[in-house]
């Protein structure tokens, strides 16, 4: 039986958490899945543990190793796309999980003509409690469903999980992930939004973004942050090159937003953060946007700072 959905999962030293993800895929329709796990140069012990855990689940799982000279989830996702044979693709992180009834919500779209289907995510802490980390990704979906204004969702959600992608669209336009350690999915998401000819939005939650204190997104170094800065600049350049002047003015990035992350969230210091700010201005980012100082956004930013920290040696 040919699978309907390829589920691409990058893995790095997280064998102790991937069982929860695989267990969430143990639905009666599991034969419709082609699960592709790509290991990102984990330790020998981790790979052995991963293989042992995978054997516990009667799922259609294929395992591959990143044998390139680069590391990162983006490299692994690109390998996964190359190996995928299904008409649809879902992306998942090895330390997250799909929610109950997620297949029921996805199934109606498997025979539809959309290129992308957006679903709102939820999020959990390490004790399984619901958090607010996901709000910046679920809010655009809520606003679109309320207004049907495309600008509320297009180019607004720059992660790849909690979305259903048509594989043909990705492969036709040769859309790939960046080989950066951080933010490897941003440009992929933006390009999918740009090249898609049709999309829809569903209000049902299918995915949980689970907090992992060991995750690359939780502990940030200046090296990783430089990747984020580079992507931030390329994202703005992409908008300026591809969009109309009116669209670009509505969507362009501000300098203050990323500077605030460096200074307040990761505590990289005033001098480093000021350097970020100046570089962004030189690369044609505007100073600030009204949306940057919305009370709800500021509250969410400050509340979620508990989940992030500067990486220590």
Task: Give your account of this protein's structure.
The protein has 313 residues and is an alpha/beta fold. It is 41% helix and 15% strand.
- Counted beta strands: 12
Oligomer: single chain
Span from first to last CA? 49 Å
Strand order of the main beta sheet, please? 3-2-1-4-8-6-9
Secondary structure elements and their pairing?
Elements: E1 5-11, H1 15-24, E2 33-39, H2 44-54, E3 61-65, H3 73-83, E4 88-91, E5 97-98, H4 102-106, E6 116-118, E7 121-124, H5 135-147, E8 163-166, H6 167-172, H7 186-195, E9 199-201, E10 207-210, E11 219-220, H8 222-242, H9 245-251, H10 255-265, H11 270-282, H12 295-304, E12 309-310
Parallel strand pairs: 1-2, 1-4, 2-3, 6-9, 7-10, 11-12
Antiparallel strand pairs: 4-8, 5-10, 6-8
Helix pairs in contact: 1-2, 10-11
Question: What distinguishing features does this structure have?
Answer:
globular, 313 residues, 12 strands, three-stranded mixed β-sheet, single chain, 12 helices, alpha/beta
Quick recap:
The protein is of the alpha/beta class. Helices cover 41% and strands 15% of the residues.
């Amino acid at each position: 039986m040919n699978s309907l959905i390829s589920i691409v999962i990058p893995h790095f030293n997280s064998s102790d958490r991937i069982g929860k993800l695989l267990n969430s895929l143990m639905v009666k329709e599991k034969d419709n899945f082609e699960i592709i796990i790509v290991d990102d140069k984990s330790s020998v012990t981790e790979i052995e543990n991963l293989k042992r855990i995978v054997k516990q689940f009667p799922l259609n799982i294929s395992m591959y190793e990143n044998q390139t000279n680069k590391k990162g989830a983006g490299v692994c996702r690109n390998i996964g796309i190359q190996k995928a044979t299904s008409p649809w693709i879902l992306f998942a992180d090895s330390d997250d999980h799909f929610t109950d009834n997620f297949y029921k919500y996805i199934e109606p779209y498997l025979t539809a003509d959309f290129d992308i289907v957006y679903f709102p995510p939820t999020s959990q802490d390490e004790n399984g409690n619901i958090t607010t980390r996901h709000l910046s990704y679920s809010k655009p979906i809520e606003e679109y469903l309320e207004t049907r204004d495309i600008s509320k969702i297009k180019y607004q959600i720059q992660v790849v999980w909690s979305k259903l992608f048509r594989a043909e669209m990705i492969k036709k336009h040769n859309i790939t992930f960046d080989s950066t350690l951080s933010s490897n999915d941003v440009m992929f998401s933006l390009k999918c939004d740009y090249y898609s000819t049709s999309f829809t939005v569903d209000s049902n939650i299918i995915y949980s973004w689970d907090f992992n204190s060991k995750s690359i997104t939780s502990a940030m170094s200046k090296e990783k942050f430089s990747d984020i800065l580079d992507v931030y600049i390329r994202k703005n350049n992409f908008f300026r090159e591809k969009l109309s002047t009116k669209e670009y003015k509505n969507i362009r990035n501000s300098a203050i937003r990323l500077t605030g992350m460096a200074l307040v969230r990761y505590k990289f210091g005033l001098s480093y953060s000021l350097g970020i700010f100046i570089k962004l201005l030189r690369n044609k980012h505007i100073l600030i946007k009204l949306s940057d100082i919305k009370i709800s956004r500021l509250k969410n930013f400050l509340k979620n700072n508990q989940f992030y920290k500067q990486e220590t040696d």
